[in-house]
Amino acid sequence: MKEFIDYILQFGNLNKQQTDLIISKAIMRELHKDEYFSEAGKVPRQVGFILEGVVRFCYYNNKGDEITHHFIDENNFVSDQQKFELQVVASEYIQAVTDCKMLVFSKKDWDDIGNTIVGWHNITALITKNCLLKAIERRSPLVSEDATTRYLSFIENFPALINRIPLSHIASYLGITQQSLSRIRKNIR
After folding, report:
1. CA dihedral in degrees (121, 119, 110, 90; nearest 10)?
2. Can you tell me the distance from the alpha carbon of 178 to that of 11, in angstroms, rounded to the nearest whole number?
3. In Å, how far are 12, 50, 73, 137, 165 from 96, measured between CA atoms?
4. Distance CA 113, CA 120 (A)
5. SS3 label, residue 27
6. pLDDT of residue 156
7. Coil, helix or strand at residue 40
8. What is the SS3 assignment for 119?
């Protein structure tokens, strides 16, 4: 819980009563590897904060290929935020890459927090902005780099994840085949 409260307090001030309210709304949830936190074709019903584990955002392109578009690890929020807020059908999946432990908030509880704590919406807006900037910062270089450089950038940006994520997901994230990734890994050893 401490990691969660410390994370939130980076984006605004809350007193003990407010943090106690937030914690009282959180439900501890375990997500097993390959289980979905949110699914395409369904309305996202929760926001999570990852205490342990890694999830990925993925979708299927028009050829039926699975595309991983980013990863989220410990001490970060996870949700399909726009679809969650609007309560509309999601177009991508959020899937556990490893076993995960997370704090989860239902839509009702998330809204109750926002309706009770003055300034909560400002805090969550800053958290959302931070998450988007991190995702763009990690993703932008991948567009213009060759495959080897993209892989080396991945190692640099996600050093703690390289041995926790299946190569197939890393290859998908990098936009290359698993065979190409195996060749690149062999060549840089």
Report:
1. 10
2. 39
3. 29, 11, 10, 22, 10
4. 7
5. strand
6. 85
7. coil
8. coil
